[in-house]
User: Which sequence fits this backbone?
């Protein structure tokens, strides 16, 4: 292009794991193509790694163990792919305060200190981009922040953690237990040696906080997110879902909630297992894929689908952000600020309207359903459907409720579990989506 | 927000049909929320319509029949929702040359004069946004232009015209003829009185040109796009597809093509009916919905799904662009320029590799298949599958080919149709996607 300037945009890379090494490879290998898209050369000036001697594939002169020094050096953009809170937080704040733009995929840091980082970026006029933090390669944050900026998003619901989706998909197709399936996932490399961040829902909760913040113009942190993982999901839960022609997914759900026409709005942000109909488009999302539904007042229903993790897909998101930040450097502008003007309150989980599926083994005698139904009535929980069937000397009873306060549903289940006629609470899970 | 400035961003609206009236309603009704997102008030200064007296629902003082005067007036952003080439092209060029940003959904104009408009925007530093031009509410162009700016897109394939998708979906489920189904679509308001722009593929071809331009950094105009509509699709074609567990969709296909390892790249941009497997995710996109698959080297396979038309959904895209343009005004920057640096040649359809499905009624006697197979061999077309079955005194023969030059496939079909043993060519259609 005739508009190409010669002064390069100088880039520092912090971290060189699966994603970082892919980013480095593209920056070094596709320099000409990136330069054409930015309108100026992109120069990778340094790569901070813990052990520079462990990266023989990279140019020696670029490697350094001094991340702090690299951040302080003469660079325009800092790409951070190390992860974790400290010391990364300090480095990125330093970079932003000095006017250097930051591209990061650090969901934990953003979900905790997003406000602080965003304020630092705002003050110095630097860009803070983090498309890679949620749903890997899927362009999701930019559409939420920019494309839908003139609409009112009412709901974001999606599969944002590949490890748990792999485990749940496998449990659904094999009937194996959670423990067996986790072992298999670990062996295949889909789960880490310490799988807690994934299976306990921390990773998804960080992503939910980021999604809700952008969707509702409201700062939501990870600690605001109600979180349940998948470690309690049993083979019985999966069978219970299958009997209803449903499947179990770990969903991140962010929604606007308003009680009554006059009530002020709040947002519910949560991560928990959900039974969804097999006909639901999220039900067909298998293995390590991610998919996110977005509902907006004017746009209606949108879906975004793609690879949620992996070196190359995540590097695609990082490089997209880098090109945006670099273009802004060249053009002298900056990307849109985060707009947290709505500042809606986050609704406690107990006050959030949800629907429950409850599967019980009960005594096979008359009056049992009446007794159980009475407990629902006392807690003001309306029953949508009941299915009963004999099974040896006990009977199996399945109840699906209408929407009710989550705390009322929980209290109902607690009370029911104490009834003499209830032999066992086989499965309790929230449900989303209409049966077709 | 404390950052809010008081000087408003002044906006002119050209056209007030289905989409325009929804945009006007939101601009007038949600002013406070839009102002919070932009960081400055948005002021709608005028609405140009053909007959101002026909819009009693709008403030009288805003309405004018003088679009040209409105464009020349003191406004920062011009939203154009009139459509067509002239006189709109002149107005938008005037606006851009005077540094006014333009938001438009005019796919025909962009597919024809995108380069001229883009150059005018570039010279004056104004923004030119047109998310509404392709796939209505689905955030698609911004992801292509920005999120994937650091990746290499290899393929964009999608359902981008709701009218034809409605007709083909209905033909597939009812077995009715094209003519009957078009009548029904017109009665239901899914097809216009003159349906040519949709059913002859012009609308989809304009969108394909826009998609290919952004995806491949290469200026592609509507006249570069190979185009076949759906008017020739018969109930027999639908049945032929169903027998192969496939369905017929009108697809816009944009792909990079390189012949041999040393060959330079070109792009193929085309719109035509395609048989795709029923298991393909695009096969399940029914009614007036749109869905677009994007394949990129690093990101892998992505899908975007949502409403492709309608007042409110399209207004969502327009207002997203307006907020972006207005934010740039407030921040003093501008959005990323279009980058057409690759300038790849557009491959003629005849030279494009495609696969054909051919369904024939042939004489039921020995040697017929050998005779037909010989024609394929002469044209260097490799056969992937053959299915033959008796049907009274003739036999039905179905051939699916491997990839071959489209011109070779066409020549093969022509020659086969002249064979004495061929009673009728029942259906010829291109196929995409592997059978599962």
Assistant:
């Amino acid at each position: 292009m005739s508009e190409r300037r010669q002064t390069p945009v100088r880039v520092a890379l912090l971290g060189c794991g699966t994603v970082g090494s892919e980013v480095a490879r593209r920056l070094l290998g596709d320099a000409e193509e990136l330069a054409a898209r930015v309108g100026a050369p992109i120069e990778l000036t340094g790569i901070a790694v813990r052990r520079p001697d462990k990266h023989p594939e990279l140019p020696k002169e670029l490697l350094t163990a001094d991340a702090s020094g690299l951040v302080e050096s003469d660079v325009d953009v800092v790409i951070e792919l190390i992860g974790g809170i400290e010391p990364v937080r300090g480095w990125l704040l330093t970079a932003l305060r000095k006017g250097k733009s930051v591209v990061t995929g650090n969901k934990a840091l953003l979900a905790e200190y997003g406000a602080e980082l965003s304020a630092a970026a705002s003050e110095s006029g630097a860009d803070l981009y983090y498309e890679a933090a949620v749903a890997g390669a899927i362009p999701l944050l930019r559409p939420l922040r920019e494309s839908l900026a003139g609409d009112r998003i009412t709901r974001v619901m999606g599969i944002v953690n590949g490890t748990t989706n792999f485990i749940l998909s496998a449990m659904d197709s094999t009937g194996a237990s959670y423990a067996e399936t986790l072992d298999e996932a670990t062996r295949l490399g889909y789960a880490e040696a310490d799988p807690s961040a994934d299976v306990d829902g921390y990773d998804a909760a960080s992503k939910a906080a980021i999604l809700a913040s952008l969707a509702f113009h409201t700062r939501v942190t990870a600690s605001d997110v109600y979180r349940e993982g998948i470690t309690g999901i049993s083979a019985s839960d999966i069978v219970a879902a299958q009997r209803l022609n449903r499947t179990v997914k770990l969903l991140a759900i962010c929604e606007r909630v308003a009680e009554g026409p006059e009530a002020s709005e709040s947002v519910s942000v949560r991560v928990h297992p959900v039974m969804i109909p097999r006909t639901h488009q999220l039900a067909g999302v298998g293995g390590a894929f991610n998919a996110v539904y977005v509902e907006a007042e004017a746009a209606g229903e949108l879906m975004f689908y793609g690879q949620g993790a992996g070196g190359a897909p995540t590097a695609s998101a990082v490089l997209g952000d880098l090109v945006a930040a670099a273009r802004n450097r060249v053009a002298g502008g900056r990307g849109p600020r985060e707009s947290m003007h709505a500042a809606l309150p986050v609704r406690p989980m107990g006050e959030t309207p949800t629907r429950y599926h409850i599967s019980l083994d009960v005594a096979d005698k008359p009056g049992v359903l009446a007794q159980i139904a009475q407990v629902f009535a006392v807690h003001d929980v309306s029953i949508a459907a009941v299915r009963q069937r004999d099974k040896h000397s006990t009977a199996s009873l399945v109840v699906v409720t209408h929407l009710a306060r989550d705390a009322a549903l929980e209290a109902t289940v607690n009370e029911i579990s104490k009834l003499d006629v209830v032999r066992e609470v086989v499965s309790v899970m929230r449900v989303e989506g209409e049966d077709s």
